[in-house]
Amino acid sequence: MSAPLDDLAALIDATLRVNSTEDLETMCRHILRGAREVLRSEAASLLLREDTGALRWFSAIGDACPVLQSQGLEPGEGIAGWVAQTGESVLVPDVAQDPRFCARIDAFSGFKTRALICVPLLTHGHVQGVLQLLNPPPDAPYTPYDLQKAQAFASLSAVALENHHLLGIAEEVGNVREIARLQRDMAYVVAHEVLNPLTAIRGFAEALADDTLEPGRTRDFAERIRVEAGRVAALIDDFLAMSRMESGQIPLHQETLEVRGAFERCFARHTHSLRRIATVVDCPRDLSAQGDPARFDMVLDHLVRNAISASHAGCRIELRGERTGGTCRISVVDTGTGIAPVHHRRIFHPFYRVPGDRPPGSGLGLTVARTLVEGMQGRMGVHSVPGEGATFWFTLPAE
Fold this sequence. Notes:
The chain is of the alpha+beta class. The protein has helices spanning 2-18, 24-38, 78-86, 103-109, 144-173, 176-193, 195-209, 215-246, 259-269, 293-309, 365-375; strands spanning 43-49, 55-61, 72-73, 90-92, 116-123, 126-134, 255-258, 278-282, 288-291, 316-324, 327-334, 380-384, 390-397. It has 11 helices and 13 strands.
């Protein structure tokens, strides 16, 4: 359990750094250190793309890295150049067997590259640079899961670049204070909503390792770890989803969706959290819509989790689907605490949370959900009365 938690802690630390300084070089070096630590790599580097398509080393960590600051790659040169041109991530277990590998840089620096991961930095769908991780331990080669970790750090790098760009614009228009406030909001959310459950997980894990625990309490502690780990996973998913959407890394593929089946699978995914809450599916079996299946499921998950957090034992959550003209309308209805009208528009803003909500979330879930719906050519809204529950609805083009 300790290794995944350490990986998560490094990612959280990198996220905090991205949103707590205006110095781009400092931000990127913190990200590289975290990526190098998590992926157990001998070296890590960040190359930025110039207008000509060439790449230049911006930041690097490792034995030969100081000499790389003066180096660059021509458009399409090497594996990094290929990644920058195609926008695709690669894992190369043996660079000697890859014809794209550029031996020139190793000859210049004296570094010996054996294996690498290279991931593009995407901002609004455009490649701004690449992140490279070089040489894992000989007895622990890179895995596809390591590639996913590298993509998470690349997303943070892209956010750092975008923050730097926005701060430059803000200085010109005198809006630095507003951007600084948004950065502080992000740091506050991460610190209080992610690190707290992480601390709880560590505490419960230490208790489980103590042989003096009564047998009956082991299951209880394991359940608490599961719940806290779920909170952390959901929060990290929200942060990464937002950063990927902002950098254009979440493509949407429109196809036919079978709505009722998606409803039933959604409730099945949340069976444990719904064990004291009644569930209802009200949807014709032949109802279908146009959208991206994976993103449709993500929207449902966000809205159902939101309904669960507002409900208590004995409440009911209903998933409704209906066709109105050329539109498919999806509703997630709960009989929970409800939301005062003053919050209805603001709850879709990043980091906004209704005062008094328990348990608190990242303030990003509804933002992510609405952005995904709009990307599928739909709309989202809410109707709620305090004490009478809430209905979150969204539309998609009907099939």
